[in-house]
Write a structure and sequence with these properties.
Elements (H helix, E strand, L loop, with lengths): L10 H15 L6 H4 L4 H11 L11 H6 L14 E7 L14 E7 L12 E7 L9 H12 L8 E7 L5
Parallel strand pairs: 3-4
Antiparallel strand pairs: 1-2
Length: about 170
């Protein structure tokens, strides 16, 4: 699927954003290839990105992208629940030279052994119910994911759901 081009948005940025959206919004089933240590799917995705195309969901092995680069984000300090790590991915950025700026934003959480010691969760989900979600069983996947998540919530947790089409409800 080619990505539309515009003069104001670099194609590489569009491919990166499209890839992120693909990873965030598609339900990708675990497969044998995801359990191995191959890097073929990551290499294929890089090739397709160079060709201004988005890989099909079955061509994505999530583990390869997660494990492709060791981020080395530190754990939170004692008493903190979340650590934020922000760093530049490249040393020099020059708009005049047409350089790319890569900013890595990472979060890490403390290890929790007892869920009962956690503070109550206040989770808000935004669900797209626009026409684009009518294709290929997308909304039923969202419902399946929600039903899988609900038993993991505790009685003291709060869940808010916002749905949107062309406006939020």
């Amino acid at each position: 699927m080619p990505i539309p081009s515009s003069e104001n948005t670099p194609v590489r940025l569009k491919v990166l954003l499209s890839g992120l959206l693909l990873l965030c919004f598609l339900t990708i089933n675990a497969s044998a290839q995801q359990e191995g240590a191959s890097s073929a799917a990551a290499a294929r995705a890089r090739y397709l990105a160079g060709a201004e195309a988005i890989p099909k969901s079955r061509e994505i092995a999530v583990e390869e992208f997660v494990n492709y680069h060791r981020h080395r984000i530190g754990l939170p300090k004692s008493g903190e629940t979340v650590a934020l790590d922000v760093r530049w991915g490249n040393g020099e950025v020059s708009a005049a030279a047409g350089s790319e700026a890569v900013l890595q934003v990472g979060f890490s959480t403390a290890h929790v052994n007892d869920r009962q010691q956690l503070r109550p969760l206040n989770l808000s989900l935004v669900i797209d119910k626009s026409g684009s979600m009518a294709d290929a069983d997308k909304m039923s996947r969202v419902k399946t994911a929600l039903l899988a998540m609900l038993p993991r919530l505790r009685e003291e947790d709060t869940l808010s759901i916002v749905v949107f089409d062309c406006a939020a409800e």
